[in-house]
Design a protein that fits this description.
Helix content is about 35%, strand content about 15%. α4 links the parallel β3 and β4. It starts with a helix and ends in a 22-residue tail after the last helix.
């Protein structure tokens, strides 16, 4: 009896899961990789983990790393991008992780694989972006004792957008990377970069039109007189 109940329960669970999967929306086809870098001690930037989960849920590959591994991570990202037809690289970092994101971007550029997007949350030590390509978006507060505005230095070939959040009273250095609003903005930017273009439908071939000459021509000699009255008997001499 107990075995039969277990079997029935397992069947119900399987049916429920299969129905849920069938009803759920298909993940968008994406390309590229988002690298998220935590800050000090690898424990004060857990908003990076939350953001990574949101990105992965939307079909965008995202991984979280300790900021100190950025040199090896840059080499790995460059190799992965080249192996996947120069798939876009996106870097997101908080605090010391934001500093590392800038340095990682410069290394990637030197390797010939400049990132498409770099998002920094309150960088604390690096204040200038050197030789790098890509778009940089810096969310920072100049009044929280930590965050820094970024400037461009020699060799910079990208685009920089500083977004000052001094007036956001609910945000500080220790939760800026956890803001749902900022997460939504980052996700939107990442989706625009990683979405695979939908293949264009092939144009329909034009329907064949009958040839006007062949359509009006008789099928065989004499067919044109098919409706003429038949001649019976022999012709009389004049």
């Amino acid at each position: 009896m107990l075995s039969a109940l277990r079997s029935a329960f397992a069947l119900i669970v399987a049916l429920f899961l299969s129905a849920g999967l069938a009803a759920g929306p298909a993940a968008a086809q994406t390309t590229g990789h988002v690298y998220l870098l935590r800050g000090l001690a690898n424990v004060f930037s857990l908003g990076m983990d939350d953001l990574a989960e949101k990105l992965n849920a939307r079909g965008i590959t995202a991984t979280v790393h300790e900021y100190g591994v950025w040199p090896q991570l840059a080499d790995q990202a460059a190799a992965e991008s080249r192996a996947n037809r120069n798939a876009p690289i996106i870097i997101v970092g908080h605090s010391l992780g934001a500093d590392a994101a800038i340095e990682m971007a410069q290394r990637l550029t030197a390797l010939g694989a400049a990132p498409r997007l770099v998002v920094t949350f309150d960088p604390v030590g690096v204040t200038s972006i050197g030789p790098s390509g890509g778009r940089f978006v810096n969310y920072y507060q100049s009044n929280n004792g930590y965050g820094k505005r970024l400037a461009t230095g020699p060799g910079f070939k990208g685009r920089l957008d500083n977004r000052n959040l001094d007036g956001a009273g609910s945000i500080d250095h220790f939760n800026i990377e956890k803001s749902p609003r900022l997460h939504a903005e980052v996700i939107s930017m990442a989706q625009a970069i990683t979405a695979r273009p939908k293949p264009k439908p092939k144009p329909a071939e034009p329907a064949a039109t009958p040839d006007a000459t062949s359509a009006s021509a008789p099928a065989h000699p004499g067919a044109a007189n098919a409706n003429a009255p038949a001649v019976t008997g022999s012709a009389k001499p004049l």
